[in-house]
Amino acid sequence: MSMQLSYSDLRRRLSGAGLWPEGRMARIACYLLGLAAGLFALQSLLDWIAPSWGAHLGGWVDFLTFIAGVLFSILAFRWLKRRILWRLRNRLIVTYVFIGVIPVVLLVTLGFVTLYLFAGQFSGFVVTSELNSQMRSVEAANAAILNELAARLEHGNKPSVESLAGLKKRDRDWSRREVCAWYGGTMVPLCSEAEGATSFAFPDFINKADNPYAKQLRDNQPFREIVRDHGKLYLRVASALPLRTETLIVVTSEPLDRDLVEKFAHNLGEITLYALGIKSQNANGSNQNAAEQTQSSVTVPPPAQAKGGVATQSPGGPVRAEGDQMALRPTFTVGSLPPPSGNLDREIQFGTPLRVVDWSTGESERAGALVRVRTLPSVLYGHLFASLGDFAKGVEYILLGVGIFFAIIEGIALFTGTRMTRTVTAAVAQLYDATKHVDRGDFSHRIPVRSTDQLAQLSLSFNSMTESIEKLIKEQKEKQRLENELAIAQEVQAQLFPRQVTQLESLEVHGFCRPARTVSGDYYDFLTASSHKLILAVGDISGKGISAALLMATIHSAVRAYSVENLPQMREPLAVGAVAGSGRVMATWPEGVEVSPGALLSLLNHQLYESTPPEKYATLFLGIYDGRSHRLTYSNGGHLPPILIGEDGAVRRLESGGTVIGLFDDMTYEEGSVEMQPSEIFVAYSDGVTEPENDFGEFGEHRLIDLVRENRHLPLAQISQSVTMAVDDWIGDMEQPDDVTLVLARAR
Questions:
Q1: Tens digit of pLDDT for each residue in 53-99?
Q2: Residues 529, 535 contacting (CB under 8 angstroms)
């Protein structure tokens, strides 16, 4: 039991944190991870029993673990997305990061990479420029020697080594240079070997027609390259001059060694020279021994395969030419890295490949050597703006001002974006808080609006919506209250209609009323005056709803009250207002006095006229049936004339009476009297029966008469039901326009 509780508690907590595997992907990931764990346990067990079997399970364990890791990564991303991106503020921040920050970071990174590459290229450019400057100096001297030798040979003088003594005295660099000349393929006795230098042979590739350098010399263009000869690198310049029938060639060579590179390394940084097939030099300039070379040697393919390679360096090892399978060995390192001038003055390390020509074959190697420079941005900055002098400070200030200006703009943009983000998130937070109030049923809450933007309009719309809902709720409550009151009124009104009618032996009666609304303005009643007399009343109040129902209740009460009181005014049909004024005389009837329908209508007319607004009136039919004589005495106050339908279908209308009651004072109502034959049916109705319309017109009195004729042998309740059903069919899907009231009576 405790284990179940612990499991349930763990599951509830993990579910609350959103970590319980509920989706299909989460269950698959857990299943794969569990399967991988099971296979790993089985593999560990098999390693003790059958190692060969356990080795086969290793691949499955890795595969299942990888798939499970991918699925868990997707699930973790979704979980973080739900947790972090639920709030609109976080979504906006992430959006701004993707729109603004990431592009800026990429641009800044691209800028730094570009600056680094530019700085590295510039450092290599400084070294190669120095080398080219040195070779141009050698080229100028070589051209001077060529012209001097040509002049001597034209005058028949033989050149000698002593002719170069003046150059060696004027320029100390000539102590390191070696000059040789050939005329017609024969060496001129001019070769001057520098100290420690090795004599070089005539370049055989000059005689090759397909060699580009030979063509270059034939076109009187000097040869100026870095060459590899006898395992060393040289700056070598060759110039040719046609003389008579032969060609005079002068070659000047200078070793590319520590001493030369150190001249321009002291104000640049650390320079390391890498080369193919070149012996490394110690700090004193001597070469490594054979054992050291063998220890670090690498098999190098023919030079032709070195073209197009890109030089790279592995940490602690040689620099290799990618794609060429060549190893560039460090030859020497000169100079040292200067101290940084600040925290941003970081080290820059870059390599620049050098083209090397094999002197023996004339083949060019694009990456035959490489110069690696370690320097600082401040040093490169000094080289870059060295020609500007004091103006460089002005450039610094201009760049600093531009940077400050950009920083200010960025700060303003950040501040503006933050403010705008807060306006959006604050508006959404206010809307969210307002929805909580609405969810609790508090429709009186309003969102404060302090701006005129679209979010403000949204808040105003929300406030308008809640205000409308609040009004609708109030109206609904008021409507509900009125409906409750109407229900009570309907219940009370239902009590006013006769529920149990004392039938006479000679007369059968039935009444039906269906309101168009909750309560009715129609009226009917059956009053027993004696053992053989029955009063029939049918009326219709002007208007509908509560006001009509109240007036109907007034008439109902007045009819019942006046019918049972012994008033002298009810003995004959006189104008009550003219005879008795506006007062009521309460007296007891002498026995034998008969009730007059006309006098009763006059009394009701006077009362309604005095107690109701001018626009209120009613139609009322009153009849008194005497069961002994089968005679109906009646008076009609503006109501639709009731109908008597005989056994043979003959129709008689009861029209004696006067106008509506309550509209005019001092009115007299005539009385009529008819004798009802056995099986003759009395039909009194309201306009809700005959006036409903459809596309074919009104329902009409003739349809009512036909229905009663066709069903006159049925009970009165069934006749009433047939009439109301026919009226409903005539109305169809439309709303019932008026109250439907029908009173039937049949003589026996």
A1: 767 777 888 888 899 899 888 888 877 777 777 777 777 777 777 88
A2: yes
